[in-house]
Amino acid sequence: MKIYVPRDAAARGLGADDVAAAVLAEAARRGVTVDLVRNGSRGMVWLEPLLEVATDGGRLAFGPMTAAEVPALFDDLASHPRALGLTEELPWLMRQTRLTFARVGVIDPLSLSEYEAHGGLVGLRRALGMDSAAIVAEVTDSGLRGRGGAGFPTGIKWKTVAEAKADQKYIVCNADEGDSGTFADRMLMEGDPFTLIEGMVIAGIATGATRGYVYMRSEYPDAIEVMTEAVAIAHKVGLLGASVLGSGRTFDMEVRTGAGAYVCGEETSLLNSLEGKRGVVRAKPPLPALQGFMGKPTVVNNVISLATIPVIFERGAAFYRDFGLGRSRGTIPLQIAGNVKYGGLFEAAFGHTLGAIVNDIGGGTATGRPVKAVQVGGPLGAYFPPALFDTPFGYEEFGAKEGLIGHAGLVIFDDTADMLKQARFAMEFCAIESCGKCTPCRIGAVRGVETVDRIAKGDVAAIPLLTDLCATMKSGSLCALGGFTPYPVMSALTHFPDDFRPAMKEAAE
Amino acid sequence: MTQTSTEIAARVGEILTAHEGMEGPLLPILHAIQNAYGYVPRDALPIIAKHLNLTRAEVHGVMSFYHDFREDPAGKHVLKLCRAEACQAMGADRVAAHAQNRLGIEWHQTTKDGRITLEPVFCLGLCACAPAALVDGKVVGRVDEARLDAIIEGVR
Ligand SMILES: Cc1cc2nc3c(=O)[nH]c(=O)nc-3n(C[C@H](O)[C@H](O)[C@H](O)COP(=O)(O)O)c2cc1C
Ligand code: SF4
Ligand code: FES
User: Fold this and answer.
1) Which of A23, A87, A484, B138 is 20 to 30 A from A155, alpha carbon to alpha carbon?
2) Over the Cα atoms of chain A, what is R_g?
3) What homologous superfamily does CATH list for B77-155?
4) Residues A437-464: pLDDT tens digits?
5) Which of A414, A443, A458 is the last residue of a domain?
């Protein structure tokens, strides 16, 4: 009997280890041989721990499982109280276009043979037969834009590094994933780490970089464990090292751990941190592509950007580019979180409207109350009211509504949310995490908290002060921490003005 | 248990040797020292500084920039509660207030008996099963007051 129980952190946080232990205990009790695989998560977090049993007809899903319900699995599967039917036929999965996440939840994350059996390394083998310019052109043609937040075209970044002359170049993977409401990087690294390794090797071959680093946040102990093990395996089998897959091309990489600073997700701060310095943001220029890690040309890319490279080379740039909307090409792993009925990771082509994501896919709030606001794109992203639910999911489309898609996290709030409190938190977070380099951010955020507190006390005259402060932070900050904190603050103020007028608040209560 | 400076010098020396040849070794070194001691002992700083050709102030400056590194030992158990938005949307503020009441401490403090240190964290990537917590490095999802009480009982 082959049974899958995810090792994904969300599944573990909901009891997957207890379920796995119960499977082994019950199998021993009955004298049944069980092949237990700790896979990644399929992304349906509300069904975690989601256990699967392999059958001749496909994998059967059971969830959310508890240890107490495990023994019944060894009786009649079909009549199990948690039986959901065939995993592949669950509507939430069938509606997706899983390209980057094709293998996540499907394979044993640390089995290179399963990885290859599911299309792994096809892209790298193809890239190894191409020259640098052709590889870069393929990435450019795919239309892939950085999934870390800024949406910069990945091919153009690679071209700059490829054409730079230097004795050493680097590929740095940004796995700092600090945005609230996001977990795609974590799920990918825990569920299919070889995809990221393959993407980084292709980046190295394309640009002439022979060393790579994955900078992971310390808040992800499970992902660090899987990623570190995967890199060790890749070394052992020659996927990494002096001659990648026997090609004569060199690429080596290492996993590094951050130390709990949100700002270290900003690429230049990350590079300083990687060099062993304070994570202070560097002024640009020089671009990291020309003077990055140790002053050498460096590609800094998000986990999802790099992990999407293999499928682009496996299926071709045109295949990938044909999905999407406007200048947002391909697919995006939506992370639906917060107060939501069906939360999790949903990979789809760009273009779903915000309302469809929240209500159709997410099923509305977990509490059953009306949706009040959705924060899109992390702590620096705007709060969207239901009135803007017709906005299609795309970089430009969200920009046109004074928002951003960021790393594609969506945090849903019901009508009990107090948007003044959310605005205050945005300022507080900026004050806590500011790297301290520029005044509008370092001092402005502290003033911002004080100003919101004045408004909360009924001082309506402080509202224009808050607006001015946001304008100053927006125009006078070196990076997006100070520069974009005004997005959540101003969107809260603009779309939910009643929450900033205590008299109206009291009348409503 | 107090570590004498010679013990620290020996152990830190081993850690420094293990990181020889690394590019940008300071964070990995600080992590390794904190793994060994539970915090970064003051006596370790001049040794690291000398080895990396930095000043003691520079090493301290790096260390103090990051939320993770401790200058003093934490309690026997560390309870981190997520304070970020997805968890707020599911009642994290309420759960945090409950934790502070139950333990009689504020953020960053340790209970008088030295058992539990309470720390805020901003996102654990468990935002679809919020609120989230990290208990001695183990993730816990959907933490409400009852689950929190169970966590606290579990580590007492
Ligand atoms: C305050 C701040 C935090 C950021 N955090 C992250 C992060 O956690 N992960 C990430 O990939 N990019 C983050 N970014 C964006 C990076 O600076 C950079 O644009 C990105 O790593 C480039 O990779 P991409 O082109 O593949 O997106 C952050 C930016 C800022 C200003
Ligand atoms: S905006 Fe804030 S975080 Fe960014 S460089 Fe300035 S002080 Fe640092
Ligand atoms: S916001 Fe709390 S786990 Fe992400």
Assistant:
1) A484
2) 23
3) Glutaredoxin (3.40.30.10)
4) 999 999 999 999 999 999 999 999 999 9
5) A414
